[in-house]
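As the work plan foresaw, the team has encoded backbone shapes as discrete tokens. One protein thus recorded appears below exactly as we store it.

:::
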Amino acid sequence: MDLYYHPLSSYCWKVLIALYENETPFVPKMLEEPGVAEAWMALWPIGRFPIVRDGEKVIAETSIIIEYLGQHHPGPFVAVPADPDAAIEVRMLDRLFDNYVMGSLQTVVFEKVRPEGANRDPHGVEQAKAFLARAYDLIERRIAGRTWAAGEDFSLADCAAFPSLYYADYIVPFRASHPTLAAYIARLEARPSVVRVLAEMRPWFQNFPFATAKDAH
């Protein structure tokens, strides 16, 4: 199984966390390597990543990739529980982290990296930051009393949570104002799969537009 990805990409982190949790063997195809970008675009001309190629199958979209792993490469990691109600909670939180948190922070990041002379949208940035703060409030209440996002078991929701919260904290910091989220991301940062993802990301982190000199080391 091949994974086309970049180690700085938040959505790639989400899939990598699941792969490492599940102990799934895969061949990393980093887009910076010669010929990889061309092969990726041939497989997925829409130009979004990560994608997985498993034999003749090409799978895209992070939540789908992770559910695919559970179906076709089962291992110790259960991304979505068998209980239907528990599964709904996991999938809902997965969407909250991807759409409410990640979607909002990407609006701010994309504004930061617009080329010189491009139209600016400061109002949109402020709206995104305000929405991000409301998302923190919602999730803070939702995950209160839980070890992991959807309960006592690490799941798809946690794979989505870490990259979105990690990057969002640079845009609208939450650790001082939201104690439940602060404690939760600390648990995530201690998780071996997450530690590994962060270590692999570190050489690239200076390219994140909100990174500081201290973050790059």
Q: What stands out?
A: The mean pLDDT is 93.
